[in-house]
Known about the structure:
- There is one protein chain.
- Strands 2-1-3-4-5 form a five-stranded mixed β-sheet.
- It has twelve helices and five strands.
- The model is unreliable at 285-300, 334-349, 372-380 and 382-394 (pLDDT under 50).
- It has a domain at 3-156 and 294-344.
- The two termini are 77 Å apart.
- Helix content is 55%, strand content 7%.
- It has helices at residues 3-8, 38-41, 73-92, 101-112, 126-134, 137-208, 212-242, 249-271, 291-294, 338-344, 349-362, 379-393, and strands spanning 16-22, 28-31, 62-69, 304-308, 324-328.
- By secondary structure, it is α+β, with helices and mostly antiparallel strands.
Amino acid sequence: MSHLAKLQRRPDHGKFIWLFSHIKTHQVLCSLTAVPEERKMLKQLTFYGKQTQAQEIRKDLFQPFAAVVTPDQQFGMNVYQKLREYRHVRDYQWTFRPTTKEVEETLQKAIEERRMPKFDNRLPTLKERGMLLMDQKASTIADLSHILEREADIARKNKKLEQERVDRAENIKRTRWAQVERMASRARAGELEKYEAWIKRREDAIEAAQSDRNKALGKKGLMMLKIKRNELLRAKQAVDFVEGREVPLPQRLSWNQSLSALVQSLTERLVNPEKPPPPPPVIEEEPKQDIRHIQDKYQGPEDILVQWKDISDAQYAEKWPPEVMHEQVTEGLTIGALQNLRKWGKVSVAERRNRSNQKRLRGKPRKNRKPRFKSSKSRDENVMDGKSAAGNVR
């Protein structure tokens, strides 16, 4: 089984999204696990120029700043995919223009006074461009709010369509049941006995018919009469069963036999499942009012929870959808102790410094030491030879 298949079998895979930011360059990494895998996270770092792409994911530099709790796995995977796609677009379709009117006026004045060239002709240096492109924290938060609003809107539309489908099914069911009740009332009014008499008369006519053509026509009419009689009979029995009236014994035995066969078939499928049936769709009612007017807390699977290490970071987004709840977390976003760091493939800075000091104090083993001079002569002899050679040259 592949690694992706194993991840997809986890019950909460894709439901939680963690966002990590570089404390110096503000580069952002998206992860589906609280302890990110370095091999996968390095692929998210784009090369913007020299010394702009990290060679390792260091825990002391990449710190988690937000965690997103989504309603279900599919919703979370869609949000994660869109975050990666938006980051890809920002990495390769960038433009640098004056961001405010004041900056634009200042630049225009400087151009008119010939203190600087035209802005369109003055591109940022490689280092400036790399720093601008690596500053991803604010843009990622803005993208997150837009993606959550977009996905929440899609979820609301899908839920509305599902509710409309359920309402249509209920209307069809009520209409069909009204027809069944009308047929049952017709059967109680004596129409069932009329069909029995017509069937008896048609059977006698078929027996008395001389030609094959008349017999065939008679059998066709007999079949239609039996179909209509059976519809009336079943409608009457169904209404009697729902209203609690007595159902004939043969019909009850027939129902019991059908139910027993159904139970046996379901039991065999559970014991020897060839292909498990899809789970029935869970249909939930829409809230009658906005969740923000009920209680400013995480309510459950219908809402989206965003946990912030610094809740002021949420102000980078212009607006958030009403389904999103924000929470300030001080300890829940930390990576963990040293055992988690070892799983991550890295150790803390203090431990690396301690190991380096111990190695420096111990020194290298005698057998691994390399001679400082290639010749077999001693250091003093080599020095003397060098002096004598220099004296001869002089």
